[in-house]
Amino acid sequence: MSIVAETGARVREVLRRCEGGFLESVGFGTTGEEDHVDIQISQAQGWELVTVRLHGVRHFAIGKGPDIMGSFVDEVSAVPLPAGDPVWPVEVSGLITRFPGLPDLYWVRVVGPTELICLATVLTVSVSA
User: Fold this and answer.
1) Were 65 and a residue from 6, 15, 104, 113 both cysteine, which residue would form a disulfide, CB within 3.0 to 4.6 Å?
2) How would you label 73-108 residue by residue, b for 16+ Cβ within 10 Å and e otherwise?
3) CA 47 – CA 55 distance, rounded (Å)
4) How far apart are CA 52 and CA 127, in angstroms?
5) pLDDT band for position 63 (50/70/90)?
6) How far apart are the C-alpha atoms of 105 and 64, rounded to whole Å?
7) By the 8 A CB rule, do 40 and 25 touch?
8) Domain segments of the chain: what residues?
9) Residue 7 reports pLDDT greater than 80
């Protein structure tokens, strides 16, 4: 099992507990050649705040509801996309062009009145009580 698949399994368990929480903030930033997306979800089951940080962003899209802050979270998912897999989920096919040398990616989705989609090379999830 690749490191992406192992990390993905652990992250999915944390993110599953975010369902029913609320978006606290969403940010996209760049520093030199690096870019990142930060997503904070409050009132997750068992934690006060969950922060999802993605680096090496290859695709980021947001469908904004009336308000981002306080937007209900119906579903959160993180799917590892190993570069060597011959087939990725059909929903990803229009988001990024695959090419030789493309690294392993994570596909993160937040679904609710505000919908977020991000493909990135590095995924970090932290929790605070």
Assistant:
1) 113
2) beebebbbbebeeeebeeebeebeeeeeeeebbbbb
3) 23
4) 9
5) very high
6) 24
7) yes
8) 3-128
9) no
Collapsing DSSP states into helix, strand and coil, what is residue 90? helix
Q: Answer yes or no: are the C-beta atoms of 7 and 80 closer than 8 Å.
A: yes
Is the model's pLDDT at 85 over the cut of 90? Answer: no
DSSP state of 103: P
Give residue-wise pLDDT tens across range 86-109.
889 999 988 998 889 999 999 999
Cβ atoms of residues 82 and 69 within 8 Å: no
Q: Two tokens at 53?
A: 């940080």
14-41: per-residue pLDDT in tens? 888 899 999 999 999 998 888 999 999 9
DSSP 24: E
